[in-house]
Fold this protein.
Amino acid sequence: MVNHPNRLTAARLAPVVELAARGEYATEIARAFPFAELPSALSLSETGHVRGKIVVTAAA
């Protein structure tokens, strides 16, 4: 396996984890969809005009 310079490692992610733990970093969620509405989530994603992340949830 080649060690790629952009590979995510625990050491590289540690600063982000610390920021999140202190509440100084957060991901913006644009919209959440249940899995049954996956086609709607994909359609929204394809518009290219979403600010934040699209979340699809699955029932446990």
